[in-house]
Amino acid sequence: MKLFSESIEVENAAERPKDDALEKLHCGGCGKDMIADIAHANDSTCPYCGALFRQPAYKRIEMIVDSGSFIEIEREAESKDPLSFPGYKTKIASEKTKSNMQEGVIIGKATIKGQRTAIAVMDSYFMMGSMGTVVGEKIVIIAGFATMNRLPLIIFCASGGARMQEGIHSLLQMSRTTIALARHSEQKLLHVNVLTHPTTGGVTASFAMQGDIIIAEPKSLIGFAGPRVIEQTVKDKLPEGFQTSEYLLGKGLIDRIVDRKDLRDTLAEILGLHCKR
Ligand SMILES: [Zn+2]
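^ thats the input. predicted complex w/ zinc ion below
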């Protein structure tokens, strides 16, 4: 098995640039507009009504892991343009500036209340967290890293699906990620997924549904195709709340819904129950 690249570079997240490019957010709960930095300083939660905004990946790391414990892996990995897709290189450049991310996922190792874990966090502010070659490769790398080091793996999912600009190269990542995670599972190591709004498309159809324990944030959209596409295909109305965390919990597709503010405690508890110190 050669999942773990020998050329992996390890860097400290403290050196990353500040999130200052995120501008204004509109709250779908109360209709108010607010400065993004203010909402993100409040755990990316609306200070007026408590609705959840999509959370930038580095903010998620700050909120979940022990302070100063996150060591990022492969931070500099960048997407190429394998199909010479019109406008893709320009799009990547603008997404980097806008989100302060190099790509749609960050991976690394950290501790949560003193317990070691490998972790991946997707960021929907970078091309809607879509999975191209780099996102897939980073999931494969962190799964291999967790397997080799006998660590549990936590993945925060947030994605619009496979990245159309990389075509078949994106779709290939569905099988690559699931195989890498199956190898982690074969070693009887814990894999926890946290599904956040939105988790859709090829990510839902691959590693997002693969966790031993699957948690979701409240009111998240989780599904494969969107509701409009399904309604047009089946020519029928969908049930109320279809594809929300609450609906899927009722159908047994996920194990638990956890409020964002309780996620750190919940993950620490799960690691404590399932992993040796
Ligand atoms: Zn609000």
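DSSP finds nine helices and ten strands in the chain.
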